[in-house]
Design a protein that fits this description.
Largest sheet: 9 strands, mixed
Shape: globular
Number of strands: 11
Radius of gyration: 20 Å
Structural class: alpha/beta
CATH superfamily of the largest domain: Alpha/Beta hydrolase fold, catalytic domain
Helix content: 25-40%
Number of domains: 2
Oligomer: single chain
Length: 353
């Protein structure tokens, strides 16, 4: 049964000001540069600018769209993240408009909520994202493209800050979900994982764990073990695994260990089905996703959003890796969704599998 709480667009002309952080709490190091529209550089660092929130320092990627594309796209990354990991997807989305992707506290190298005495919860991240939206978009409408946990946070933001719903012209989920029952985990195992994650997030355990198991040599050894066991230690497969290992080393250095496990515990008990949102959602689901039950996700989305337009992507992972380029990332914007992002309308794609 649906909750009596219902979030629907209003006739308000601007995003709301209900966030407890407020626009004044979020400051960027400089205003957006006057770079030519479109991706004119292959280096993501050319589009990075400082981001400061409640004294927590991070980064934000801002890529102007191609000429004639005035859509504003907020890209929200997921767990175990880094801005550079999603550069290929940023390049794809910039074909439809200007792309902005902020770090989140404890992820991507941004300082953690723990630094200011707060616990990294979904609610905290939702309020943080609302502050980013109010500071960055002001009176402009925008599109949300949420990846995995990023979609969880975006959904909670719209539930906690309903006046922002009117500013959203489209919301898309890539491997996102809204409830712990959407995960492919039995209830007993989910509870065990939750309790174990909470234990690993303790201040005297997480740093020791990072030093002992998640340091550079240990991560590379884990990734390279299959290579060492193989008779062929060269070639494309070996090089691919080494690149993955290098990325994982960067990710474990950039992401706060306590935040990693604390948010993992939150995921195991997630419930975003307690408040409806009166706009439709695009579900980009991956056929080979071993973490999510895509049918359960769709049912959950329909409990929250007014409609759900589902698009299947045939990949064998929960989400592409950070070493995948623009060609692979392009699959995350299926043709029907691309058509709508270009500003066209018509009957949304109906799920066929």
């Amino acid at each position: 049964m649906r909750s009596s709480c219902f979030v629907t667009p209003t006739n308000a002309s601007a995003p709301g000001t209900t966030t407890p952080y407020g626009s004044a709490a979020l400051r960027r190091g400089r205003t957006i540069g006057r770079r030519r529209p479109g991706v004119t550089s292959s280096a993501p660092m050319d589009y990075v600018q400082p981001l400061v929130h409640l004294g927590l320092r991070g980064r934000m990627l801002h890529v102007p769209g191609e000429p004639g594309r005035d859509r504003e796209i907020l890209l929200v990354y997921g767990h175990h993240a880094l801005l550079e990991r999603w550069w290929g997807l940023v390049q794809v989305l910039s074909e439809y408009g200007t792309v902005t992707m902020p770090d989140m506290p404890g992820f991507g190298g941004m300082e953690s909520f723990y630094r200011i005495g707060r616990t990294p919860s979904i609610d905290e991240y939702a309020d943080f994202l609302a502050a980013v939206v109010e500071r960055h978009y002001r009176n402009r409408r925008f599109t949300i493209f949420g990846i995995s946990l990023g979609f969880v946070v975006a959904t909670r933001m719209l539930q906690r800050h309903p006046t922002l719903v009117n500013a959203v012209d489209l919301i898309a989920s890539v491997s996102g979900w809204v409830h712990h029952d959407d995960l492919r985990l039995p209830g007993s195992l989910r509870q065990a994982v939750r309790q174990g994650s909470r234990l690993l997030s303790l201040p005297f355990i997480a740093p020791a764990l990072q030093r002992a198991l998640f340091n550079g040599p240990s991560v590379r050894a884990a990734y390279n073990f299959p290579i060492q066991r193989s008779k062929t230690r060269t070639g494309p497969a070996s090089e691919h695994r080494r690149r993955l290992a290098d990325l994982e080393v960067r990710l474990w250095k950039a992401n706060d260990m306590r935040t990693h496990w604390a948010t993992f515990a939150e995921i195991m008990a997630l419930d975003n089905r307690n408040c409806e949102i009166g706009i439709p959602v695009w579900q980009v689901y991956i056929s080979g996703d071993s973490y999510l039950d895509n049918d359960a996700v769709r049912r959950s989305l329909l409990m929250i959003y007014s409609d759900c337009y589902s698009c299947r992507v045939d990949l064998a992972v929960h989400a592409p890796s950070g070493i995948d380029g623009k060609d692979v990332m392009a699959a995350l914007v299926p043709p029907r969704l691309a058509h709508v992002l270009h500003g066209h309308h018509g009957k949304p794609e109906i799920r066929t599998g």
